[in-house]
Amino acid sequence: MGYLVVGCRVLLGTVFAVALVGKIWGNGAWRAFVASLGELVRVPPRLRPFVGVAIALGEAAVLGLLAVPGAVPAGLGLAAVLLAGFTVGIAAAVRRGVREPCRCFGSGSAPLSRAHVVRNGLLTTVAAAGAAAAIGWPGTGEPAGLLVAALVGVTVAAVLIRLDDIVALFTPSTRAS
């Protein structure tokens, strides 16, 4: 179970780090993220900055908990809760026909779609499985196995972070040639 925990911890730590940095890196990215909350979850304009800060603080809390060996189960559990909320919010927005670009990682331009719901559903499952496996795990394992688990976590995170680009590769272009 230790390798599963390490893989989940690295995968989710990478995803949450890129998401947080993408939202706060530069005033433009932060403003775009906060503005997107209006369509995404129907937040009134005056409350959007507070909701944005709450989301950023939640992501930072996940990172902090994942960095402390004894707090890994809590970090994975918090990640599962946040990701479940993101999944429900995105699914509702897609159902309503919202075409707002996904600002999950900052400056995305792809409109919300079922791919975002699937991605967040997968991340929720990873977080929940990791949290369950982390309970009682002593934090040990063979160094080579831990390294492989971490490399798998980073690789899967990279694929999920760039999912919009990957989906675009397999989606017919609507531009005229």
Sum up the structure in keywords.
177 residues, mainly alpha, 7 helices
What is the strand and helix layout of this fold?
Blueprint lengths: L1 H23 L2 H15 L6 H20 L4 H24 L18 H21 L8 H19 L1 H7 L8
Fold and architecture overview:
It is a single chain. With 177 residues, the protein is mainly α. The protein has a domain at 1-75. The protein contains seven helices and no strands. Helix 1 packs antiparallel against helix 3 (48-67). The longest helix has 24 residues, at 72-95. It starts with a helix and ends in an 8-residue tail after the last helix. The mean pLDDT is 89.
Task: State the gist of this model.
With 177 residues, the protein is an all-alpha fold. It is built from seven helices and no strands.
Gyration radius, in Å: 17 Å
* β-strand amount: under 5%
Silhouette: globular
- What's the rounded overall pLDDT mean? 89
Q: Report the structural category.
A: mainly alpha
Main β-sheet, in a few words?
A: none
Return the string of H and E elements: HHHHHHH
Tally the helices: what do you get? 7
Distance between the termini: 51 Å
Instruction: Assign a percent range to the helix content.
Output: over 70%
Q: Which blocks of ≥5 consecutive residues have pLDDT under 50? A: none
Number of DSSP strand runs: 0
